[in-house]
Specification:
319 residues, alpha/beta, two-stranded antiparallel sheet
């Protein structure tokens, strides 16, 4: 595909062209902050703001219901599935629940600073070969956060995230075109979604759901871009998600599933062997650190759990 181009004439946004989908689970304060930023700073307000609540018990759903009933937040809707849907399933429900031609995947820890998301809509309208567009992402303190990456590589997976990050093995390209754009936030074209399908919530319920989706967009002939001149906050502070507690296990399971799907079959046994070797080395190092009194026992226990789950492709024992 050719590089994206933009027109000088500014398009006038229409609220019904954009829908926001927000996955929510037990982060009420962040959800309220996120929603307030949408209604305070994005003009015009997106015609649909869909909150998919995955069974919160902290009053998150009740907060949205109150806002809906107040009538002061146009377009706001609450979706409460009757079973756990996880992240990817929530995205899919949100997309199915709105009708706008462009959908912004906004998260509870996102904060809109201005109406810059409409630049993303204009960008997609002018460049129909682009499936989705992301933005410069910062913390509340203004530090730059990640918004994209290159497609995963087997060597980076085997070496581990810390070493791969130091070596820059999965760093994104420097131009606007990227392999993977993270969903925090990401505006996608409904036409592109209709062509490649929604997220694969069966194989990638949490981790790598965005990576698999972006890979399918690329395989479908689309591009993904980032607008670095528009900033959006992504900052959860101390409000760790429920998913964070099992992130390491889920990351390994999903990444291995990704390579089973997209790598050559002969590479998968080599990847698994490399992972086993890394886990054994890490466990030995951690045990030595524990004996020296510089490593907490829980870190050793977590590495043992990861090693035990290797035989099950990193699925939990109850799975």
């Amino acid at each position: 595909m050719s590089s994206a181009h933009t027109h000088e004439a500014k398009l006038v946004p229409h609220s019904q062209e954009l829908a926001l989908v927000i996955n929510s689970f037990n982060r009420r304060d962040l959800l309220e902050r996120s929603l307030r930023s949408v209604y305070d700073h994005i003009q015009p307000t997106p015609g649909e703001v869909v909150v998919v609540d995955d069974g919160s018990t902290d009053g998150s759903a009740e907060l949205v219901e109150q806002w809906v009933q107040s009538g002061r937040h146009p377009g706001l809707a609450l979706v409460r599935p009757d079973h756990k849907v996880a992240f990817a399933g929530g995205v899919n429900l949100g997309i199915a629940s709105c009708r706008a031609p462009y959908i912004c995947l906004f998260e509870t820890d996102n904060v809109a600073l201005d109406d810059g998301l409409w630049k993303g809509v204009d960008y997609l309208k002018q460049n129909p070969h682009i499936a989705g567009v992301g933005f410069r992402v910062t913390t509340l303190a203004g530090a730059t956060a990640g918004n994209s990456m290159s497609f995963p590589s087997p060597i980076a997976f085997v070496l581990g995230q810390e070493i791969a990050s130091r070596l820059g093995l999965e760093s994104p390209a420097t131009g606007p075109r990227r392999d993977v754009v993270f969903t925090s936030p990401l505006i996608v074209s409904r036409k592109a979604v209709d062509r490649v399908g929604v997220m694969n919530d069966a194989d990638f319920p949490f981790c790598d759901s965005d990576i698999d989706w972006c890979r399918r967009f690329h395989d479908g002939g689309f591009e993904l871009h980032v607008l670095e001149d528009v900033s959006v906050v992504h900052d959860q502070g101390d409000n760790r998600s429920e998913f964070s507690r099992r992130r390491t296990l889920d990351f390994h399971r999903a990444r291995l599933a990704y390579f089973r799907r997209y790598a050559t079959p002969a590479a998968v046994p080599l990847i698994r062997a490399g992972l086993l070797a890394r886990h054994l080395v890490e466990l030995a190092v951690l045990r030595a650190g524990q004996a020296a009194g510089v490593v907490e026992p829980r870190r050793v226990d977590r590495r043992r759990e990861l090693l035990r789950s290797w035989r099950r492709d990193y699925r939990a024992e109850s799975a």
